[in-house]
Amino acid sequence: MASCNNSEESITRLDGTSITKDSLTVKINQLVKNANVHGLAVTVFEDNEISYQKAFGYANVDTKDSLKTEHVFYGASFSKAVFGYLVAELAKEEIIDLDKPLQEYFDVPIPELYFKKEWRGFHELAGDLRYEKITARMCLSHTTGFPNWRWMNRAAEFTPEGKLFIEFDPGTQYSYSGEGMMLLQYAIEHITGKGLEELARERVFDPLKMNMTSYIWQNRFENKYCNGHKTTGEIIPKDSADEAGSAGSMETTIEDYSKFVRHILELTAVESQTTKLLFEPNFAIRTKMQFGALSLEPSNDYDHVGLNYGLGWGLLQTPYGFGAFKEGHGDGFQHYSIIFPDSGKGVLIMSNSDNAESIFKELLEVTIKDVYTPWKWQNYIPYDYEGG
What we know:
- By secondary structure, the protein is an alpha+beta fold.
- It folds into two domains: 10-76 and 212-378, 3-Layer(aba) Sandwich (Beta-lactamase), CATH 3.40.710; 83-196, no CATH class.
- The protein is built from nine helices and 15 strands.
- Strands 5-4-3-15-14-13-12-11-10 form a nine-stranded antiparallel beta sheet, sandwiched between helices. A two-stranded antiparallel sheet has the order 1-2.
- A hairpin with a 2-residue loop joins strand 3 (39-46) and strand 4 (49-60).
- It is globular and about 60 Å long.
């Protein structure tokens, strides 16, 4: 177990209650054991600083290697939160206009863009001129009309033909989409003349000294990464990305990603123009769930928290000010982060276990008294849940 040294013995939570760090560690250990979470790392933020950081369980269950805070995780959709920040920086500098159709930045129609890997292209959109309406803001707030991925429909059903199409008029509905993020990435790379990894290195990773973070697999990550685990504990072989993907190729450690989250908290505290853009509500979300068949079912269940989306981050409203959240989910890896900038508090959870989301609800409550995250919408069903 690795930890962040801090002289304060207690954590003060959103509602003013406190918990000792020793008690929190005991509680997390118990949750990890009860839900058979193979590995978990947690950071708690207070006053825009890291107050608590520990790792629990294993980097690899078979070898019994203990998980450490310096282990490299597959970051999954945490990639999108970093990309959202990067685009907000470019928008602040007027390098990109968030509301200008992306088509206007390209030299050819979007369906004619060339890709070495043809399946990444947009040629199937030819004839549906709605692609001409898609903007950077739509891509980052998941309102492009694209499915999450071309081999998956909005109900999260596998579509082996892998054809990309626009499922609703851009800007009119919320539907989480990695495809939209990738289109924006290609636009950003075209506008700047730089690849995503180069831009992220220059503007995020190097300035924040995130030395073990990259959108592309690096040799320095060898023997320093943790394996993902299926619900049964079966080890998932490491999959190493050879090209940068804004939607989900990033590798990072909880130490590095905590630096990024702390930076966002600090910028928000000084009313940075970047975070004003990042956390401007763009689209109210009124669906039963974020993914699956129930994502097509209208619902007002989350109006009480004002569920919304900014630039690559979800948003909600609480008595303690707004919250900004981002989840990450891939085979063997389950992550969540939420910050409450008005109070300088937040929590970051990273796990290499497919069982981890079953303890997220209780983790959020015990660490910072976050009872506002829409856990049913996220499908964070507790391991001992008996409700409807």
